[in-house]
Amino acid sequence: MRSTSQAALVTLALRVTLGCDGSQTPADAGWDDIMLDVPPGGYARLVPNTAFEGVSWLVVGILPTDTSVDLTGATVSVDTHADHVRIVEQACNRLRCAVVIEADEFIDPIGQPIPRPIDAENVMLRVDPVSGQWMAATLTLFPLDYSNHSTTSSPLRLKGTFLMSSFTMAPGTRLEPNTSDLTGPGRLFVTGPVVVRGTVDVSGGDADSSTAGSASLASGAGGAAAAAGAGAGAGQAGIFGGAGGGGSHGGTGTAGEDGTGTGGEAGVSYGEMYLAALLGDEPGCGGSGGGGAVGAGGGGGGGALLVASLHSITFEDTVIDVSGGDGASGTSAGGGGSGGALWLIAPVVSGAAIVDATGGSGGTGTAATGGHGGAGRIRIDAATTGAALTLEPAFSSAGPIIDRSTLELIDADGMATVTGWATPGATVRIDVILQTGYGPGTARGFTSTAGGDGTFSLAIELLPGTSTLVASQQSGGISSTGMVGNTFEVGGSAVLGTALYVASVPAVE
User: Would you tell me how many other CB atoms lie within 10 Å of the CB of residue 28?
Assistant: First the structure.
């Protein structure tokens, strides 16, 4: 059977512990009656068996514990108590079944960045063979916190990492960092659509004659205060009357000259170009502050922000500011903070947005002018065809970006064609890792070369069962892994990235 639906089979990899007995039972007598009795045909195993609410497409493989059961022509249904979960497509052969599931939001926001395992719900899938007794398999579904409450008078304050089932900003609203904690980047992982109609401001603060500019989310040190030495990662303070140096992205700017009237040098953009540190939820991803001078503080470094959606990101007249703050003017001026970091991940990004990751300007001094901050980083892992994006500085795709619409939901003959975008001329590799339910199984790699326009097409072979697809590219001696998937990988309370799963259920096996 080959699917006609245009979406990819994917699911979630998540390690959690539920209750003491590993189960959850909703407070419903009918459900209790079913779950307390062992199904006549026993239990089947799901590969994988966990998911988050709000996911558009989820694939799970079903393997009976009793391998002698013939599943040819079997049907799979969702228990009637779980009306927020729907089966979109299914296929079964003698040994296994695979189903494509859609899950709506079903639990009110719980106000926590990462849901607690105890909040999970068990959803029963019923498998009915043509002959033989029905069996049950359990899917663990986790609730997510979602945010749709920003107003024009009350900005949405971002702090830390959030998993959400949807995220919407109304026109005229603002998203700003929570200044009580600037140690980590802002990270939004959303299973559904992201719609931004307002202003996202995680820029570094400007300095004045006595105070350094404030650092933003996960930036280096803020601009050094007047006549003070620079903090770690900031532009160096001016010496002997010299101006402050500009901040750089993830590193130290250059000190101002001595009292000769020469300005501090600008910071230089360098560091990890593909922003992989943003996945680690670590400080230092954003820009660094500019150095201060006598009577003039340095500008703060721009913040670090990652927005990932399994569905889409839509901008409507949006402004995203991750720029560095300006240094203060004076006799000897402060240096500008460097630009921060922005990473967008989605199957598609559309709409109009202006993104500013430039470094802040050095202050004007009568004796010495402050150095400008270095440019920040912008990375976009998404198809952006038709989007009106104004980016400063311009980004280069870190890719490869898989076009999920080219993957079939259930593959019958074991072959699939993966298309997408990568750096022109890059070597693209797709690793196919068969999931056994007890850790990764057989892994095989397939390679191709992206054309002059960056597009690639690669035929891959799938073994029967559920497999993980991992896309990567080699370009200019640099390797980068693609991030477009249809589920999130979670370890403990940290979101590690995305994953893409496909399933093959051949007619004869």
Answer: 11
**422-449 tens-digit pLDDT:** 889 999 999 999 987 665 567 889 999 9
The Cα 450–Cα 47 span in angstroms is 33
Q: Of the candidates 206, 208, 204, 205, which has an alpha carbon nearest to the alpha carbon of residue 295?
A: 208
Q: In whole angstroms, give the CA distance from residue 351 to residue 197.
A: 10
Query: How many Å apart are CA 449 and CA 447, to the nearest integer?
Result: 7
Coil, strand or helix: which one is 124?
strand
Query: Consecutive 10-residue runs of the chain (509 residues): their mean pLDDT?
Result: 32 28 34 57 88 86 91 92 90 94 74 60 93 91 63 66 83 79 80 90 86 75 50 43 54 39 46 71 74 80 89 94 89 82 91 93 80 84 89 78 81 88 92 76 88 92 90 86 84 79 88
E strands in 310-368: 313-321, 330-332, 341-356, 365-368
Phi then psi dihedrals of residue 119, to 5 deg = -85, 0
- The residues, ordered by sequence, that sit 6+ positions from 51 with a Cβ below 8 Å of its Cβ are 11, 12, 58, 101, 103, 139, 140, 141, 142, 487
Please give the backbone phi and psi of residue 354, each rounded to the nearest 5 degrees, phi first.
-115, 125
Alpha helices in 407-502 (DSSP H): none
CA angle 12, 17, 21 (to 5 degrees): 125
Q: Is 160 in contact with 68 (CB distance < 8 Å)?
A: no
Taking only the tens place, the pLDDT of each residue in 224-252 is 555 433 333 345 444 444 555 555 554 44
Residues 372 and 268 sit within 8 Å (Cβ to Cβ): no
Identify the three-state secondary structure at position 266.
coil
Judging by DSSP bridges, how do beta strands 135-142 and 85-92 pair with one another?
unpaired
Residue 489: C-alpha distances to residues 461, 485, 502 (Å): 24, 10, 15
Helix and strand totals (H; E) in the chain: 1, 33
CA distance 93 to 209: 74
Match 């922003």 to its residue by tokens: 275
CA distance 464 to 93: 10
Instruction: Please state, in angstroms and rounded to a whole number, the distance separating the CA atoms of residues 25 and 120.
Output: 10
Q: Is the Cβ–Cβ distance between 366 and 331 less than 8 Å?
A: yes
Q: In this structure, are residues 398 and 342 in contact, taking their beta carbons and an 8 Å threshold?
A: no
pTM reported for the whole predicted model = 0.82
Strand partners, 201: 321
CA dist., res. 493 & res. 15, Å (int): 10
Name which of 191, 192, 35, 57 is nearest 125 in CA terms: 35
Which residue in 225, 233, 249 sits closest to 324, CA to CA? 249
Percent of the chain scoring above 70 in pLDDT: 73
